[in-house]
Amino acid sequence: MISVRILLSLANFSSLGDIGLVDLTTHSDILEFKSGKTLDAKKYQAKIIYLLSGTVEVTDPENNVETFQSDTPRAQKPVFRLRLPGYKAKCKCACTALFIDEKIYDKYINDAWDGGGSTILNRLQDEIPKNADDKLMADIEKKFLHDEIKLPSLPEMAIHIQSALTEEGLSLSKIAGIIQSDPAISTRVIQVANSPIFRGSQNITSIKNAIAKIGLDAIHAIVISVALRGLFKPDSVLLKKAMAQYYENSIRTGIIAYVLARNIPGYERDRAFLSGLLHDIGVIPLLFVADIYPELTHQAGNLESTIEKLKGKVGSMLLEHWDFDEGLCDIAAHAYDWQWQSTDNSPDYVGLVQIALLHSPLVGGKKIKGPPLCDIPAFKNLGLDKINPADDLQQLKEVTKRVTEMIKILCL
Fold it and tell me: Is 0.70 topped by the overall pTM?
């Protein structure tokens, strides 16, 4: 396995996602050659070769010669433009070259981020006039901004918990009493406390012990996750599917954020869980609205592109409406603002959620349309640039089973 940083030094790989980069590193080698060594393209038909150091002289079947060095723009392209008989590269001095498996290269090299300029399903919307699509989104946005669409109320149980959490001198007994009044939520809290993510050596059987084990913010997140499940039960098959995808993705992001926060100084794990859970909360009001607009419920591409465009603004409005703190409102508003920079020195949970989102495909989530992990400010700000990306991703892969079990518990 080679270093990811070697790939990132080459233009063809600078916009790949972290999964592609790590996969490529495991199917690549670096070889050194003495001056005078000749590489025959025919011999390396199954490899893509890049010059990392030195100078090579490349000849084609008609004996045309091209000479270039490793620090020139030409070295950003493969040594052999065509891997056919007759193409050869001679090392004019000691050289180092990167060899990449052709099949893995072809798998990822055309799957780069487009800079964020397109929506998730633009290719499905060709038949919809652009001006009509823009008008629809503008109409929905206007209705939210002018309070013409009633935002859903926070479920009663979540209100009780949220109110109690603001009290000074809050006791675990009081929180436990509130939770115990709802059998469904009580069951989930006990299950989560005994899940692989939280469980220690002791089996948890009481709500009070579960709260002590999990933490108040995590309890808050669990109560909200269960409450949100019953907040919107659409009849449309398309909306049911969208709601299920939203719910599972939110839980997955919360759990990944929780796991990541364990290893980042200054970050609270249960706060991270709540942040990940709420990052896409704007999806729920938009699904409420979808029934009003047949254009949304009849075409999956139209629904998804509308949600992608508006969920941040609507989510922030909803959390403010529910009296959540400014930090959580920022998470809903900026989770997909990939160049987000925190304006103070407090822990940046927006950045943490972004890192969790870009890790999501490794634990069963869909691929996020975003930049490479190392290109977002949070990557450096959270100290992840000091960690070997391959080691980081491998560690996350190892908790996949635990994440999957947690999703099953909360999605029952």
Answer: no
Q: How far apart are CA 122 and CA 302, in angstroms?
A: 9
Cα separation, 28 vs 13, in Å, equals 13
The pLDDT assigned to 126 comes to: 34
Rounded to the nearest 10 degrees, what angle do helices 300-321 and 237-261 cross at? 60
In this prediction, residue 215 carries a pLDDT of 79
Amino acid occupying residue 82: L
CB 225 within 8 A of CB 252: no
CATH superfamily name and code, 4-108: Jelly Rolls (2.60.120.10)
CA distance 84 to 33: 21
d(CA 77, CA 49): 9
Phi first, then psi: what are they for 25, rounded to 5°? -65, -30
The CATH number that domain 122-411 falls under is 1.10.3210.10
Gap between the Cα atoms of 354 and 269, Å rounded: 15
pLDDT in tens, 75-89: 988 998 766 678 899
Task: Report angle CA 136, 140, 146 to the nearest 5 degrees.
Answer: 140
Cβ-contact 207, 179 below 8 angstroms: yes
**Under-70 pLDDT residues of the chain:** 82-84, 110-138, 141, 143-151, 199-201, 230, 232-234, 291-302, 387-399, 401-403, 411-412
Burial (CB < 10 A; 0-12, 13-18, 19+), residue 383, is exposed
Map out the domains of the chain as residue ranges.
4-108, 122-411
The residue among 188, 179, 136, 141 whose CA lies nearest residue 160 is 179
The letter for the amino acid at 246 is Y
Q: Which residues lie below 8 Å from residue 58, measured CB to CB, with a gap of 6+?
A: 65, 66, 67, 68, 79, 80, 87, 88, 89, 90
